[in-house]
Specification:
The chain is 66% helix and 0% strand. It has one domain (9-156). The protein is an all-alpha fold and 189 residues long.
């Protein structure tokens, strides 16, 4: 047998203890990483929801008279404020996109004010949104930016590989009895 000196056993115990401590630290760090990823994903979904809610808010404001809303609500609507807060706390990489969205918001609100003033002063300056090409152009650019922000957010939270099922009136249905839509079984007419 090999003689075991007094130095070998304590060294082995120390090495095993160090290995166990390293494994515990590694496991804890992985746990914290998973927890952070879950929080980031949840906040990403909140940001996506706030951006879509803001988009719906803008569309709703289009046909309201100036007097129906306050200046505070127009300059900083709740969904946009919420999106800015989430971006600031969780997604600083989207700062430039948020600045562009705030600029687009300013342009849309300014245009809506002008249209409302025309409506009040002339009585006939108002046009429905589907006939208003300038409004459609402003909103289209704004929607493209929102979609870009959502795509970047999904990429950051690791959700980019899954198909996004958008909300709103952008349904992908088919009325063909033999066709298959991209999101489900054949629809029945």
């Amino acid at each position: 047998m090999f003689p075991i000196d007094d130095f070998l056993i304590p060294s082995l115990i120390g090495a095993l203890s160090l290995l166990a401590a390293a494994a515990a630290v590694y496991g804890w760090m992985r746990h914290l990483g998973r927890l952070r990823a879950q929080q980031l994903r949840a906040q990403g979904y909140r940001l996506i929801h706030a951006l879509r809610e803001y988009s719906a808010w803008i569309d709703f404001q289009r046909d309201l008279p100036i007097t129906a809303r306050g200046l505070e609500e127009l300059t900083s609507p709740e969904p946009l404020t919420q999106a800015r807060q989430i971006k600031r706390d969780w997604f600083p990489d989207l700062s430039q996109h948020m600045v562009r969205l705030l600029q687009a918001h300013s342009h849309v609100i300014e245009y809506m004010w002008q249209q409302n003033l025309l409506r009040l002063s002339q009585g006939s300056g108002w046009r429905p949104a589907y006939e208003d090409k300038q409004y459609q152009q402003l909103r289209g650019a704004q929607e493209d930016l929102i979609d870009e922000m959502i795509a970047l957010c999904r990429e950051i939270i690791g959700d980019a590989s899954q198909p996004w099922r958008r909300t709103g009136s952008d349904f992908a249905f088919t009325n063909s009895s033999v066709g298959v839509s991209g999101n489900g079984p054949p629809s029945r007419a």
